[in-house]
Amino acid sequence: MRRISCLVALCVALLAPTLCARPVRRISQVQFPPPDSPIVPLPSGLQIFPAELAAGEPKEAVLEFRRPLPIGFSVPRLGAEFPDLLFSLTVTNAGGEADMFCRPTSRPGDLDPVFGSDAVWSSNHSVGTDYVFISRNHTQFNEQVRAENTDQGITLFSDILCNVWSLSETPTSVVVELDVVPGVRSLVDREREAVGAIFEECCGDEGCPVWRAIGDELFGGDDEEEAPLDLCHVRGSVCDEEGHAVRINMAGWGLACEMPVEEFKKFPKLEKLDLSHNAVGGKVEDILGGLTSLRNLVEFRASDNDIDGFVDSLAVCRFARRNMTTLNLELNDIQGPLPGCLFDNTTTLKELHLGGNNLSSTLPDVFSVNSTLEAISLEGCGLTGNVPKSITNLTRLRTLFLQENNLTGRVNDNLFKSDFLRIVNLRGNNLTGKIPSSIAESPVVMTVLLDGNKFTKVPNQWMDGREAGLSTNLGLLGLSANNLKGDFPVVLGRLPNLGFLDIRFNQFSGPLPAETGLFPQATGILLSNNSFNGSIPEEWGTIGIVANTAVVFEDEPQFIDLRNNNLTGELPDFLLDAEGLAPVNVLLSGNNLTCPDSGDDGEPVSTAHLPGLEC
């Protein structure tokens, strides 16, 4: 076995839109190795780029926004078989995040980017280490085999391309390791027997159709098995070189049973277990109490199952304090109240996901500056009370999802002054007072959703045009369905990377600002159901999507929604240019606008491209 290690220092940015769509404009921002990038043969016969990986030494690099790290392979068959490939992807600093996506390719020079939507093999990264295992037995591995005349004669190759994408704007250090495994890797007998017992207990005679069908994806499987029991070659699961399972992914396999804790306790090296989207039941305190004996387990995901019981138990607290990093029990039947041990400085959790459970609890005011928490999801849990002031102590927090609860009170302005916080969703609560001014000043926050609350005021500096410290990263801001009053918050239109603004269903009034260059990157500007008056400024023809200067992704909707205001006056010329305006959808109904009888050339003016316009 040959191990290739590389240390990659990544300066990263949130990439969610680019993982499933490609830019239409400014495609040059995505850069890949030139076509003559060297393909270096290794002693194992594996051909790989970039060339630095072939040296077997750590490699430092910077991965910028929309610039993935490409890794390509031409994998030769060694003797009678191809080798297996195992990637390890480790994020080593707080706030960083990355994922690897791989697919087969029909040509070794293929450099088209690999997105999450077209990946055959991928990591499921949260924190710590994750794996991508590419098995010689996968159908997709064998479908693109080609023959090439080499010094050893005719050699068969399978070509694979991987991209490591950045998922966080925080500069991130990652370690990427590659094991090339020419020998057979099989699950040890005791663990294989445990898998068989899980199948018998949770699938019965006809259940688990997804698990049974997995055998069709594998070459060289046991035709006598009802379903694959050797998880080493099942996509999503990974074994170490000794044949012990280190990651088991049975998400969506159709398991229907009480959680077989005793069988899972037979996997001593298990690090990550995913049982999401099944019908697994049992008491949460019994399940977590049983899994506590797995000393290497750092991630447990069992969202969308039938787990019940009480989260406020000693067993849950012990589980959260034993080097666990990720706990995801969303969409179950677990009850509260929330114990402080999940949030204070005794927990080792970095990610906590309990949304969609009936917790009916307040948020414990125990958040500590020493907390390891980086992601909290507690949406739709029946939470009441205030957002604790101590939540601003979470210096490593990256994402906070508390939407669709019954939270009240004000939001502390310091919440958005964190060095790591990227996404905050508080929509659908009963929060009051002023919108925190730090939202538009934070150097790192990218998405803020405060829709459907009872906020009454926006910061004065948003109204009077003070631009000191404007955020360069805020991309999505939702403030709709509140009780906000006053003039148009012009500072929001000047945010350089704001992609979506929703202030519908408020009580804003006054004229729209007659200023050039507003909304340079916004593809959604939703201002309907307010009381804006006056005419639509001709200067709004310089908005990014109208002037065709914004970065827009393929099939991405583009909207300017001005419906149901008190706008008057004649339509500006840029709105009458149907060809130049396409594909921007401009919605103007419910106003008192005037259409010109004819254009400058004396010909009648058509407004068919402006649906619902009455003038």
UniProtKB/TrEMBL annotation:
The keyword Methyltransferase does not apply. It is found in: Cytoplasm, Cytoskeleton, Cilium axoneme; Membrane. InterPro entries: Leu-rich_rpt, LRR_dom_sf. This is Uncharacterized protein. Residues 1-21 form the signal peptide. Its main location: cytoplasm. GO terms for cellular component: axoneme; membrane. The lineage of its organism: Eukaryota, Viridiplantae, Chlorophyta, core chlorophytes, Ulvophyceae. It is a single-pass membrane protein. The keyword Transmembrane applies. Pfam families: LRR_1, LRR_6.
